[in-house]
Fold this sequence. Notes:
Elements: H1 9-26, H2 30-35, H3 42-54, E1 78-80, E2 83-84, H4 89-109, H5 115-124, H6 127-134, E3 145-148, E4 164-168, E5 173-184, H7 186-190, E6 200-206, E7 216-222, E8 228-233, E9 244-255, E10 259-260, H8 270-307, H9 323-350, H10 356-381, H11 383-386, H12 392-399, H13 409-421
Parallel strand pairs: 3-6
Antiparallel strand pairs: 1-2, 4-5, 5-9, 6-7, 7-10, 8-9
Amino acid sequence: MSIEFETPKPIAQMQTVLQSVAENMMRRTSREMDENEHAIPWDYVEFMHNAMRSMGGGGGLTVAEEKPSSLLPEGEGRKGEGEKRPPIGYQKLASQIEMLSWGDVGYYLITPGGGLGAAAVAAAGSPEQKEKFLARFNEEKPTYAAMCMTEPGAGSDTSAIRARAVLDEKTNEWVLNGEKIFVTGGDKSFTHYEQLGKGFIVVWASIDPSAKRAGMRAFVVEAGTPGVKVVKLEKKMGIRASDTAAISLVDARVPFENILGSPTVEKTTTGFKGAMATFDATRPLVAASGLGVGRAALEFLKEKLTENGVEIRYGLPRSKMTAIERDVIEMEIQLRSAWLLVLKAVWMADNKKPNALESSMSKVRAGDVVTKITQKAVEIMGPLGYSREFLLEKWFRDAKITDIYEGTGQINRLVVARHILGYSGSELR
């Protein structure tokens, strides 16, 4: 089975629709949303939820169970009677995310869907949990889910997580205590359930601190659970339309069956690794988002150069090109090569192949590329690139998050090195 580089027809059709949304809904109010951080554009939320449902994909952008994207219509995997087409769920989702991020990455992040929360359920949940929690993204109201992992004293080192989950044997409930920070979409996932569908957060906590990573588990905590509160919304440099929340848990009670993975501690870290597989699926999607921002900046730069009589002369020897021509062509090379890494990673996810190495490689590359492209575009545009007259300075600010969330560039480089050199996490830190 080989990778096909030609864009499948369903994806091409979806891109046409989403480009119209990106141009006519997102770009037009991009500056307004950037200046009014955490405001929720309800018209956009409702429109995207209904549009995705009408196109057969459930409500919003969701990485779901067997069909990796719940955007796949029933029977999407078939070409014709008796003829199967290779699965394209993650590829389709990556293309959608790239296009929406080209429109505005902050807007993309508030598109209804399950995000990392649903991805965690898909990666580590039981069939019953998947049926219960993932089905709600197909319901009438737009719904969100979020992942709560980072803590004030535990960022990239997940073994330092201090949140605790203790089983109350009398009520057969888990009692959670702890504090989580930098939760992308945490506010919409947990506090707006009157206007939205009932979302949830997935909270990482230890059921046995002495077991370290072997004791780590993820718990589905539904919106409105007593004892759970959004205590802060971060003010950020970029992706300002998206809420980033701090959440506290004080004696929060969660049904026993809401634990993802085994409720007992084994000697191995199998349960922990199973939940971490969430990121193998979603890191290429983060990379795709960053590349959408990079493409927006590069296309804007080329448009402005053309308006000022500067054409890129392809095919010339580098020695005969201007410095700007060499810069633009190098930016295009970086963007396309990074997209090829994304395609490989999502193709492997679609075909259920282990892709931890490729997933981290795609995110490392995309984080570097989008940062360099937006910075170089601002540099070439000079004062106009730095001015708020255009969105280029905003894209420059938005770009950096690609290298930070869902595993920093440094951590993902460690993941890549471990896989290539054959070291464990404890051997290479």
